[in-house]
Amino acid sequence: MFEAPYPPWDFTDKNRHAKPFAFETVLKRWPVILTGIIDNIYCRNHDLGVSASSKTDEEKAVVEEVINEGKKIISQIGQVKYDMARDRPLQPIPEDGEALVEVYNTELERLAEKKQNTWLTVSWLYSECYLYRLIRSFFVQTKHWKDYDPFLSQKEATFQKSSKAIYQLATTMHELERDKHTLASDPENLKVIFKEMIQMCLWGNATDLSMLTHMSHEDIQRLQSVGRDAQAARAKYILHDDQEKVWQHLVSLAGKKDSRVDFVLDNAGFELFTDFVFADFLVTYTPYVTKVVFHPKLIPWFVSDVTPPDFRSATKSLLSPTFFPEEDTPEGAPASQSTEESRKHLFQMVKRWESYIESGVFELSVPIDSPLGASDKKADFWTSPYPYWNMEVLAPELYGFLQDSSLVIFKGDLNFRKLTGDIKWPVSTPFETAIGPIAGSFPILSLRTNKADVIVAVDPQTAERLDKSGEKWRYDGKYALVLFQPRSK
Asked: SS3 sequence, 58-96?
């Protein structure tokens, strides 16, 4: 099993000019996220209580049972907040019948032996994964809340705020259809659009709900801007850019049968929409890709990650005439300001996606009707605490499946942290070195906006300049990395 020559990021680093983002995470971000879950359950319980007056005695008894279970979950999450603030030991995850309990608890035992098992001494990557698996256990151990995603309303609300960019992209794809023959006649034309798609997916990742605790609607719109001028302006913020290498790799697939691209998904909502758009471009408008497989998480994860229910509901929401509000809402969703033409463009595009899902051109890596908490050998690994280095040993079925892929696109910051082990690598460490034994197993593209301390493949002088500038460039989402590692095995 591969082990890195440097320690992981944790909450105790005092060597840098400022505290690492890990420290801010455990003291500020996580309590906000946990409070959000408590508020969500409280509001649902309140609504249930109000509705009880119109129900039969038997129905009232069920409502009371649901409310009491909700109160227990609130109490459990409140205890986690209390323990976190006082640097108490992490508790074993209860045997709840779902995947990975033994994996988490075995590692927790190892950490306890090293006296690194409290909230401020444990490694950041393990503790953050543990937190979401622990939260899941609170819901699993109930009768009525097993299928409840405490982050769903946040995901949907943020998605609804993205209507402007969504309609704009739908029209862009309609224009590609009009210019399809011109594009196909010259690969250079396709390359220009391909780079637009890469940046769209890269910065679409800016809508990460675990990060947007204080971000306004205008901030979200700015981050989701998809105009060419915006893309050009952002190029200087990509600290390592392998777009040309990825394009050359894609062109090399021309003429090959069954070229498949895999998306290891990150956020639901607008980012999943951009993933669909990119996948659509690859299979509809280029001769290089014939199939796309999407890899979700099987439990609510890091607030906004895509689950199978999120994947199923995405196209339904986009086709619903009422999903995007026609007037500004109290929750901050703006009026869609769509035209009949842009609505038609969106409808046509999303119907094409549904036909691709039906025919298998687009495919979820697990059964599409998988409920929350399902277990699957091709998906459980994504919600484990492990780095991806040792996938071949720890998840051989998933590893073998990805070996058949022509390109595996890892979306977002957490996937980057797991690819690199969330290790304190020197900033100039080559990507190939940082991803350990998985390097060369299959072609890897990492699209990452910087939202955590770990950085690799960046020029040391650039990193030093940014450090001295006072910018929080490692984790404020302003800078990004586009990293490609070809197959060699």
From this structure: HHHHHHHHHHHHHHHHHHHHHHHHHHHHCCCECCCCCCC
pLDDT at 28: 87
Whole-number Å distance between alpha carbons of 251 and 258: 14
pLDDT category at 230 given cuts 50, 70, 90 is: low
- State how far the Cα of 245 lies from the Cα of 237, in Å rounded to an integer: 18
Which residues are within 8 A (CB) of 475 and not within 5 positions of it... i.e. 6 or more apart?
Answer: 21, 450, 451, 452, 453
Strands 480-485 and 407-411, sheet pairing: unpaired
| pLDDT > 90 in the chain, percent | 77
Which uninterrupted H or E stretch holds 260?
Answer: strand 260-264
pLDDT number for residue 101: 98
pLDDT at 247: 96
Alpha-carbon span 249 to 479, nearest angstrom: 25
The CA–CA distances, whole Å, from 135 to 124, 132, 368, 370 equal: 17, 5, 24, 20
Which residues, including other chains, have CB under 8 Å from residue 229's CB and lie 6 or more apart? none
181, HSE (Cβ side, Cα atoms, 13 Å): 1
pLDDT digits (tens, 9 = 90+) for 175-204: 888 878 777 777 888 888 888 889 889 887
- Going 344 to 161 to 317 to 449, the CA torsion angle's sign is positive
